[in-house]
Amino acid sequence: MRVLGVDPGLTRCGIGVVDSTGGRGVEFVAVDVVRTPAHAPLPARLLAVADAADRWIAAFSPDVVAVERVFSQHNVRSVMGTAQASGVIALAAARAGLPVAFHTPSEVKASVTGAGRADKAQVTTMVTRLLRLDAPPRPADAADALALAICHCWRGPMQDRMAQAQARAAELARHHKARLAAAAKGAR
């Protein structure tokens, strides 16, 4: 499975690709940071992020796009920009017919470091080790994008199985309720 991981942001949007090699094996493919000038109009910045996502999807043909779930911060303006960047990434994936998985920062940190409260330095160190990189990815947004991709490689298949099991259980429950309703109707 090939995963395009995205750490959304307007000023710096980390974007990286990792291949799952089975089990907990992961392999580095590519990483970069999309930068937009803070003084540029918002639509132009969002377009730059969307265009970059389109290019990466076309160039690397991922199976899924993993995006950091926007979480509450004290700076509302920062949250809005992150949410808007996240939205254009999801839109680019949807246009390409790709599923999008959202992971919280604590899920990503716990997957990669074993601790949901790990700091950026710990995440970068583990990403460097796990992908056997010669140097840590810089800036932190690049390492975060790779961490998101790794997280999805490890959590995604389990989450898919859980969703399939839940859908099957819901279908069985609907079928069972319909049979009970039919039996009750026939007993009258």
What is this structure's SSE topology?
Blueprint: E1 2-7, E2 12-22, E3 25-35, H1 42-60, E4 64-68, H2 76-95, E5 100-103, H3 105-113, H4 120-130, H5 140-187
Helix pairs in contact: 1-2, 3-5, 4-5
Describe the structure in your own words.
- The chain has 188 residues and is of the alpha/beta class.
- The chain has a single domain, classed as Nucleotidyltransferase, domain 5, CATH 3.30.420.10.
- It has helices at 42-60, 76-95, 105-113, 120-130, 140-187; strands spanning 2-7, 12-22, 25-35, 64-68, 100-103.
- The longest helix is centred in the C-terminal third of the chain and has 48 residues, at 140-187.
- The mean pLDDT is 91.
- Belongs to the RuvC family.
- It catalyses: Endonucleolytic cleavage at a junction such as a reciprocal single-stranded crossover between two homologous DNA duplexes (Holliday junction).
- Its cofactor is Mg(2+).
- Mg(2+) 1 binds at residues 7, 141.
